[in-house]
Amino acid sequence: MSGPAFLSAIELAEMIRSRELSARELTMFFIDRIERLDGAVNAVAVRDFDRALARADVADQALAAGRVLGPLHGVPMTIKESFDIEGLPTTFGNPEFKDNIATSDARMVERFKGAGAHFIGKTNVPIDLADLQSYNDLYGVTGNPWDTTRTAGGSSGGSAAALAAGMSALDSGSDIGGSIRNPAHFCGVYGHKPTWNVISAKGHALPGTLAASDLGVVGPMARSAGDLALAMDITAGPGPLEAPGWRLDLPRPRKSTLRQYRVVIWPSDALAPVDDAIADRIAEIGELLGRLGATVSDSARPAIDLADAIRTYKYLLHGALSARTPEPVRQHYRELAAALAAHDDSDRAITARGTVQEHAAWLEHNNARTALRYAWQRFFADWDVLICPPVASTAFAHEHGPFRDRTVTVNGNPQPYFQQLFWAGLVTGPYLPSTVFPTGVAADGLPVGAQAVSGEFNDYLTIDFCRLLARETGGFTPPPLYNN
């Protein structure tokens, strides 16, 4: 039997506090699952078992003395490889940084430790966190626990796979192009992309990088919406530079039933068609909400030009990603951008122009993004939640060839590989929070997720909406091969 493998972190913490099991026993339990089950999945790339057991003993000793270390007292967890944990490598899956050993903890790691948790390891990523699949020459390929011949997603693929396979109680990832959301969808778990900058990303960086990235966020991943909310309680707030002068006060949800919600359903779009397995599931959720008494629309949309919105996101994305672009590649893009026709808005053209854009051009795109933020704010004055796809397909087979040669099949038709950024970018560009939640499995036996989106800073609203919805749909389901 799976025992505590698929319980929530909240439930596991309560079991420790009530002395139903010790922190050491729970830590040993997850270590045993990793050692027995992680071969084909390959989720936990960096293991720190000895220190985890030592910290579990500290938690048990504290409890014996009548002290509770926090809401996650004694709970073992994992975190994405790109977060610093003192004494462990932070490589972003890049062999160039194989000897980069962190000398301190990331802010997010500090906060989880401060809440009583300890870390049994770090989870796999793609090289430079730049793929929808998690594989690299340092740690190998991460498989999906539902079918290890398929991707677990990226760039937080190891995190989602570890949670789905019951090898960790809680995790956290990062997201600039769906890197929390697509793995959560592919693996059937929960993931929250927060409003930009509500969780400090300090310590989620390679050497020499101190400034926060535009668009990029860090956020929790879990097997329940309740765990996401607890993780937000623990981690949200100012970083070291902001802490002297401001405090975060995210609004709390005020609705207690689904019938109180005003929900927009956006199952697919002509600009980025979605596989019927996902689009139909989102439509079914809309019908369910309607039967429960919620106000539901499948036609309401924000007052934006969708193509321009995605174009703006892509320019901002490539601007944000350009900081570490090697000079020879930068020069190649300069030459390519100079040779492009003025009307060329292909992905190739946007990548080239976006990577070498002048600051004045970035300011124009940022102004366009600000206009989008206002448009979405007006939209969410009338609606509470938008439900749309995280990506256009269920988990696809591993494909490690050149990006230009890759496609993703949607309803039998090939789509360009990075067209998958459409549904992520729709949300990321204007800084909106999004919670991906599981909806069950498709006919192909793979999980189907959807993302619940709301206005900026309504992070707890989307999470609580998903908590209420799980009462109707069942929430997380363990993959059959790992339910043991």
Question: How would you describe this structure to a colleague?
Answer:
The protein has helices at residues 9-17, 23-41, 49-64, 107-114, 157-164, 181-187, 225-235, 276-291, 306-321, 327-339, 347-356, 359-382, 421-428, 459-473, and strands at residues 44-47, 76-80, 118-123, 135-136, 140-141, 143-144, 147-151, 171-175, 190-193, 217-222, 262-265, 295-297, 385-388, 407-410, 413-416, 434-441, 447-453. With 484 residues, the chain is α+β, with helices and mostly antiparallel strands. Among the domains are: 3-258, Amidase signature (AS) enzymes (Alpha-Beta Complex); 306-370, no CATH class. An 8-stranded mixed beta sheet has the order 8-10-9-16-17-13-11-12, with helices on both faces. The protein has a 3-stranded mixed beta sheet with strand order 1-3-2, with helices on both faces. It has a two-stranded antiparallel sheet with strand order 4-5. Helix 9 (306-321) crosses helix 11. The protein is globular. The model has no long low-confidence stretch (mean pLDDT 97).
* CATH H-tier superfamily of the domain at 3-258: Amidase signature (AS) domain
Shape summary = globular
Structural class: alpha+beta
Q: Count of DSSP E strands?
A: 17
**End-to-end distance:** 5 Å
Record the strand order, biggest sheet.
Answer: 8-10-9-16-17-13-11-12
Number of helix segments? 14
Flag low-confidence runs: none
According to CATH, what is the topology of the domain at 3-258? Amidase signature (AS) enzymes
% residues in beta strands: 15-25%
**Main CATH class of the domain at 3-258:** Alpha Beta
What percent of residues adopt helix (DSSP H or I)?
25-40%
Biggest pleated-sheet summary: 8 strands, mixed
Mean pLDDT: 97
At CATH level 2, the architecture of the domain at 3-258 is Alpha-Beta Complex
User: What is the rounded Rg?
Assistant: 21 Å
